[in-house]
Amino acid sequence: MNVILVDYNNKEIGVSEKIEAHKYGFLHKAFSIFVLNDQNELLLQKRQITKYHCGGLWTNTCCSHQRPNCIEYNTVMQQLDFEMGIQCSVKRIFDFYYYVSFENGLIEHEYDTIYLGYFNDKPNINRNEVSDYKWLDLNLIKQDIALYPNDYTYWFKSIFLPFLDFVNILKK
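Above: the chain's sequence. Below: its structure in token form.
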């Protein structure tokens, strides 16, 4: 799979094979989806242990990479259905970028677009991608991250508080 390389203004500058981008730390496009229910609980997924990094950790509902020559919204919707078996509309809420090196030598250097959706049913998870899921209250997630930070992916911990601020502004 190829990923789209970008600059810090999210301008496309090329394409790279996904593992190569992670090996050399090339900045590339990614997206993260947050799905809430009517009880203001977030649907978390536990990444399958066999993932190339961060296996077995809890994270946001779904995340992946934008594919070259594809409409971003379509890719987002397809990935949400592929990983979580969910079909719901989502909207783009903000962007951020981050850089982190992992013990296995891979590097996440992503320009990440955050999407928000709402869903009130049971997901149908893809066991090749996701080992477990849970709906959890946003304030309990904040407490759990503080108590058990090593149980969560780096990017989720990085974007959770800005996401929580966004949701709190929506409620006002």
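The chain has one domain: 2-171.
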